[in-house]
Amino acid sequence: MVDEEVEQASREGNFATARPHEASRAVVTMCTALPQWYEPSGEAAPEQVAAQYVEFALDLMRCRRPPPSAGRSR
Q: How far apart are CA 44 and CA 42, in angstroms?
C-alpha cells in the first residue's frame, strides 16, 4: 500500500526520490521502530513525534511541495 502511494506521488512529480520503493521501505521501517524507543513519560508528546516523523518522511521522499492537508510551513 505505501509503495503504491509513493510511486504515484513520484509519477505525479510530488516526490523526487530516485528510488521510491527503497524510500517507502525506509519510512515504514522508521515508523514500525517507534515502539522500540518511545516512552510516553519521555520529553516528546506523541503529536511532537508524529510531526517530526512527517517531516523526516517528506524529506526522505524529497517532497517538492507540502501535502494538501499540511497547514504549516516548514
A: 6
pTM, 2 dp: 0.78
Domain boundaries, the chain: 2-60
Q: What phi and psi values does residue 44 have, to the nearest 5 degrees?
A: -100, 135
Residue 39 in grid coordinates:
516512552
Q: Indicate whether 66 pLDDT > 90.
A: no
* Inter-residue contact 14 to 63 (CB < 8 Å): yes
What is the distance between the alpha carbons of residues 54 and 58, in angstroms, rounded to a whole number? 6
Helix (H, G, I), strand (E, B) or coil at 51: helix
